[in-house]
Amino acid sequence: MQQERALLDRLGLDLARLEARREDQTRLDQARRQLDELFLLVVVGEFNAGKSAFINALLGQPLLQEGVTPTTVRVHIL
Fold first, then answer.
1. Burial class (CB in 10 A: 0-12, 13-18, 19+), 52
2. What is the pTM of this model?
């Protein structure tokens, strides 16, 4: 999220330099605040449907165990 914050900061500087409308600056400020807010993503499905593989792909790392047979036996909060 550091890259996203840096991008929003650069955009803010550009908006100020271009004397953008206040509405645009307000939207940018809202986007900055939303980066700091928690969010909840729930993944549900049948047994062995690929939920763990989906989460691993989403995160870009093998955080959850995957297998041909069901491997996740309880709810995980990440």
1. buried
2. 0.52
Residue 61 dihedral angles phi and psi, to the nearest 5°: -155, 155
Task: Note the pLDDT of residue 69.
Answer: 82
Note down the domain range covering 45: 40-78
State how many domains the chain has: 2
Identify the pLDDT of residue 36.
82
C-alpha dihedral, 38 to 40 to 41 to 45, nearest 10°: 160
Same domain (yes/no): 50, 68: yes
Question: Are 21 and 47 in the same domain?
Answer: no
**Are 43 and 51 contacting, i.e. CB atoms less than 8 angstroms apart?**
yes
Residues 63 and 45 in one domain: yes
Q: Can you tell me which residue has the tokens 């995957």?
A: 66
Question: What pLDDT, in 10s, does the model give residues 37-61?
Answer: 877 889 998 888 999 999 999 999 9
